[in-house]
Write a sequence for this structure.
């Protein structure tokens, strides 16, 4: 039984660090002073490839913005569907530019770099083409102090109930990242909603050494800005949250996560690796106790599930309790499978093997 008590003490220690990290992260956000963002200085870069099913929702949310940035630059990465024609027939001429990536260039990093090279704004905001944005986004952004890099919130909603696990996992990682930011620095960034200084990007050239790696634009950018000690903020504000959906099938969700795991391995962030090791011990230890007895498993498992529920900031109802229990039970096997698959699986994304 001592081993169970030891695990519970370990969990309490991690949970205490998590709460301390969130407290410090909130303090960082509240104590910043200085010049604030101005929408007229921001260029929004939206790379896209074969996004005809998603563009209409994004365009609609952009049209409902109460305040506009300096410009929107849409960069086409050799789309083969109707994406370009949708943009050409729907977007107003003013404030929107559609660029086409030269034939000799491919991939999101080249697409972003090409768009940034044409941008007029002092600051670059990257959005993905499959998001929606709240109407007062830029009005709210102007309340925040400028940093060289600002990580903005991304929320993943369910495409259907089958993908609930993946939406929960995404939120769990968001919560963890915010706490780690409070204690030290962020370990994750999401290019679906990322704001940074154009001059710093040009000086640091975060993609120069990894253009041969198809994915990971956001993580390589974060690593380069971190290593060069650039000021980084993490803004948690519902009005700044962009929303995307989980892929529609479990197989598509797994392919997405394998792609993400693969890029994080290539970035090789030592702090992220250390946090991952602690996470493995936290998530997987209750499963190991099954070899002793069912009681040895149930006590630490329920203890961990309660912590997971609190971290996820779930409303207290039966569906959320059930979803959290499933998440807590499945996640240990999921992360092991994901790690192995990312080493040996070639993932196809937008008709390209990455």
């Amino acid at each position: 039984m001592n081993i169970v008590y030891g695990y519970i003490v370990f969990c309490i220690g991690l949970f205490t660090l998590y709460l301390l990290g969130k407290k410090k992260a909130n303090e960082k956000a509240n104590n910043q002073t200085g010049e604030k963002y101005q929408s007229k200085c921001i260029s929004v870069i939206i790379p896209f490839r074969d996004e005809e099913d998603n563009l209409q929702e994004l365009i609609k949310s952009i049209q409902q913005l109460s305040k506009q940035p300096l410009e929107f630059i849409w960069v086409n990465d050799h789309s083969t569907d109707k994406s370009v024609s949708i943009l050409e027939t729907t977007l107003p001429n003013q404030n929107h530019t559609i660029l086409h990536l030269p034939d000799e260039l491919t991939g999101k990093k080249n697409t972003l770099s090409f768009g940034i090279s044409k941008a007029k704004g002092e600051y670059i905001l990257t959005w993905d083409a499959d998001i929606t944005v709240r109407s007062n986004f830029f009005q709210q952004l102007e309340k925040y102090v400028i940093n060289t890099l600002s990580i903005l919130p991304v929320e993943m909603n369910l495409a259907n109930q089958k993908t609930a696990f993946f939406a929960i996992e995404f939120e769990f990682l968001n919560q963890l990242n915010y706490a780690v930011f409070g204690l030290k620095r962020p370990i994750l960034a999401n290019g679906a909603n990322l704001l940074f200084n154009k001059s710093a990007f040009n000086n640091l050239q975060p993609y120069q050494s990894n253009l041969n790696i198809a994915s990971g634009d956001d993580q390589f950018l974060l690593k380069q800005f971190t290593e060069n000690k650039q000021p980084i903020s993490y803004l948690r504000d519902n009005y700044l949250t962009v929303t995307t959906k989980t892929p529609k099938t479990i197989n598509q969700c797994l392919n997405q996560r394998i792609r993400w795991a693969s890029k994080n391995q290539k970035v090789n962030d030592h702090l992220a690796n250390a946090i991952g090791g602690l996470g493995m011990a936290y998530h997987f230890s209750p499963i190991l106790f099954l070899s002793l007895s069912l009681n040895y498993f149930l006590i630490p498992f329920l203890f961990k599930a309660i912590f997971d529920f609190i971290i996820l900031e779930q409303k207290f109802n039966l569906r959320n309790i059930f979803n959290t229990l499933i998440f807590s039970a499945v996640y240990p096997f999921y992360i092991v499978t994901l790690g192995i698959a990312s080493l040996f699986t070639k993932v196809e994304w937008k008709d390209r093997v990455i």
Notes: The chain has twelve helices and eleven strands. The radius of gyration is 21 Å. Residues 2-30 form the longest helix (29 residues). Residues 39 and 68 are 7 Å apart (CA to CA).
